[in-house]
Design brief:
two-stranded antiparallel sheet; Cyt_P450; metal-binding; 2 strands; single chain; oxidoreductase; 15 helices; 326 residues
């Protein structure tokens, strides 16, 4: 008669084989995808240096909807606008929830931000608050700010064409930060921009698949902070960085509200809309949504330069003729 250890080992072997068996894909009607390896799934199939290249290759092999596993986490990758529209718009109630990010979300404190929260009451409230200050009607009040910053950007591009990438990034950051917090950014050495870059780099590195084991094994979050390898150590550093990034500009807005100098500031509009006293109150919605936009404004540049090269060359020729006489 088999002993208890032998039975236990046999059951574990059967569980591992079933977990990695391709029959599982057929039984669960999952989308096609690369073959997962036992325990780690498709972890080593992804290039951590450039994961988007791997996802693009999978689109060629498996189509617009790809299924992968990483340490038991089930992921579905959407590689076309049509697939995104079908699932997130037409069936958004079922499929529009965010993936659970234990490290960045729960432990570092970004789970309540508009970018990582699920489609629940809190998220809908945040969307309503954003529409109050940044809706089509409200945004008309920012027309002068946009015009002034656009003129400044054109002047800086004319004076220093070699650094057009930095100038366009700076213009995007100026617009977002000035509208959100009423703070003017002189250059890319502004403390807020430096902090935004640091925070965005931290998020990018922390949210990658396999970056932290706690994202794959959530029970690790119960390990005490004093134990070696505890996820709470890097999480506490990240949380402190987030709180500083959010808190400093928000305090600046509160001071402007007290000085009655906060007209047309997004954060002030949020506070005023809900009649929150600017002294000693925690904001209902932390405006973290600006984080990615401030740190990653490359899409502005993509539309700025290559979209209409013929018109760009024509305008350049006319400007050269007016400015230089040829």
């Amino acid at each position: 008669m088999p002993s208890a250890p032998e039975i236990t080992i046999s059951l574990l072997a059967i569980a591992v084989l079933w977990w990695s068996c391709p029959l599982k894909f057929k039984l669960r009607s999952l989308p096609p995808g690369p073959w997962p390896k036992p325990l780690i799934g498709n972890l080593i199939d992804i290039s951590f240096r450039d994961p988007w290249a791997t996802i693009k290759d999978w689109k060629t092999c498996f189509g617009n909807v790809v299924y992968i596993e990483i340490f038991g986490n089930k992921l579905v990758l959407l590689n076309s606008l049509q697939a995104v529209t079908d699932l997130f718009e037409k069936q958004g109630v079922l499929y529009s929830h965010r993936p659970e990010a234990i490290m960045v979300g729960e432990l570092m404190g970004l789970d309540q931000s508009i970018g990582l929260s699920n489609n629940d009451k809190s998220w809908k409230q945040q969307r309503r608050l954003v529409s109050i200050a940044l809706g089509p009607k409200a945004f008309k009040q920012h027309a002068k700010t946009q015009a002034d910053l656009a003129a400044r950007m054109i002047l800086e591009l004319h004076q220093n064409q070699a650094n057009h990438h930095e100038i366009i990034n700076l213009a995007a950051a100026r617009l977002i930060v000035q509208i959100t917090y009423g703070h003017f950014i002189k250059d890319m050495t502004d403390p807020y921009i430096i902090k935004a870059d640091q925070v965005f780099d931290l998020i990018s590195s922390s949210i990658r698949p396999g970056a932290y084991l706690v994202d794959s094994l959530p029970w690790l979050k119960n390990i005490p902070k004093w134990l070696p390898g505890s996820p709470h150590r890097p999480a506490s550093k990240g949380k402190a960085m987030f709180e500083e990034f959010i808190g400093v500009p928000f305090e600046h807005v509160k001071l402007q509200m007290l000085a009655e100098n906060s007209v047309f500031i997004f954060a002030a509009s949020i506070l005023a809309a809900y009649s929150i006293n600017p002294v000693g109150e925690t904001p209902l919605v932390e405006p973290k949504f600006s984080l990615g936009l401030i740190s990653h404004p490359e899409p502005f540049e993509c539309k700025f330069t290559p979209r209409n090269p013929a018109i760009h060359n024509l305008v350049k020729a006319q400007l050269d003729g007016g400015l230089y006489g040829h």
